[in-house]
Design goal:
Helices cover 42% and strands 17% of the residues. It is of the alpha/beta class and 329 residues long. The protein has 3 domains: 44 residues, Orthogonal Bundle (434 Repressor (Amino-terminal Domain)), CATH 1.10.260; 127 residues, Response regulator (Rossmann fold, 3-Layer(aba) Sandwich), CATH 3.40.50; 136 residues, Response regulator (Rossmann fold, 3-Layer(aba) Sandwich).
Length: 329
């Protein structure tokens, strides 16, 4: 493979002069420039993009930081972001914060040292105060309140989605509806819990029943097992995310509890797993792929226009009714 030194030797100039021509930076006489360009063409020389990025302190690379890559929500998000990145000449790097101590690992500082051009934050494992230290990094933040002046924040109407889920279970005749909520450091978990509580409190005759979970399949199994020990008469379940809902369906099947005849189940997110388990799971569907595309579009806008003001965008959810809540009234 030809190198910049080979080009310089053939053109009778220094490697630094070749570098100035490649980067269109600094003075080079027209005669030398023409000679270098001719040698480049004759050799079929292609500059090392990584090396050029290091020289310019850019890399044409975007980073997507997620909390748990094993959750099918995030690969779908990444597909949308990667599609837009590639259309605009960028590559996408993926980072995972699960198991990372955010106090000891300043993820954004690490990315800046690697000359990442911009970052999409899709995790609650990085404290917003830490993000506020890096306002020079173009940034799009998903589902997290923040005070970063030049960031774009993209949210989903999680509160309304959880209200819709709870009202749906009431509409199909569920008398005692419980909610398995996610970790409360996660803003989406808090909003989903709040939506459930808002609806239940509008009906004084209904009892609020809540059980903690952790947004994983195993967390759903453990939560519904504990729930049924304490409240065996529950007949409706709004589960804080689809992964936990898959765990719930698995455990109810093991216990020979019929879904939806004995307990109706509704999840939240719209991941593909809700369509491959049996019974298929009713869910509040988020526009995951679109969110990824939009995040990458807004990030590239901020890379190209670094002085843009902060921006907040809210996307809508929709109720997708499947077998887990189709009761014969």
């Amino acid at each position: 493979m030809k190198t910049i030194r080979d080009v310089a030797k053939s053109a009778g100039v220094s490697p630094a002069t070749v570098s100035r021509v490649l980067n269109n930076k600094g003075y080079v006489s027209e005669e030398k420039k023409a000679r270098i360009e001719k040698v480049i063409q004759e050799m079929g020389f292609e500059p090392n993009q990584v090396a050029r990025g290091l020289a310019k302190k850019t890399s044409n690379t975007l980073a997507l930081i997620v909390s748990d890559i094993t959750n099918p929500f995030f690969p779908e998000l990444a597909k949308g972001a990667e599609h837009v990145a590639h259309l605009n000449g960028y590559s996408l790097m993926l980072g995972n914060t699960m198991g990372v101590d955010s106090e000891d690992n300043d993820y954004i500082k690490i990315l800046m040292n690697k000359y990442i051009d911009g970052v999409i934050i899709a995790t609650h494992d990085i404290d917003s105060e830490l993000l506020e230290k890096h306002t020079k990094m173009p940034m799009v933040i998903l589902e997290m309140e923040n005070k970063i002046e030049n960031a774009c924040t993209i949210k989903v109407d999680t509160l309304q989605g959880s209200i819709t889920a709870t009202e749906h279970l009431i509409s199909i005749g569920c008398k005692k509806i419980a909610h398995i909520y996610g970790p409360l450091y996660d803003q989406t978990a808090k909003e989903r819990l709040q939506g459930y509580q808002n609806v239940i409190h509008e009906h004084p005759e209904r009892e609020e029943v809540i059980v903690p979970g952790d947004f994983t399949i195993d967390g759903g199994i453990a939560a519904v097992s504990q729930l049924l020990k304490d409240h065996p008469d529950v007949d409706g379940l709004f589960v804080g995310n689809d992964l936990m809902a898959v765990g719930v369906i698995k455990e109810l099947s093991r216990l020979h509890i019929r879904v939806p005849e004995d307990i109706a189940v509704c999840g939240f997110d719209g991941i593909y797993l809700t369509k491959v388990v049996s019974p298929e799971i009713t869910t509040i569907e988020q526009p995951i792929y679109k969110m990824g595309e939009l995040a990458a579009e807004k990030l590239i806008d901020r890379i190209n226009n670094p002085y843009m003001n902060n921006e907040s965008i809210e996307l809508k959810t929709k109720l997708v009714i499947r077998q887990s809540s189709k009761k014969d009234n």
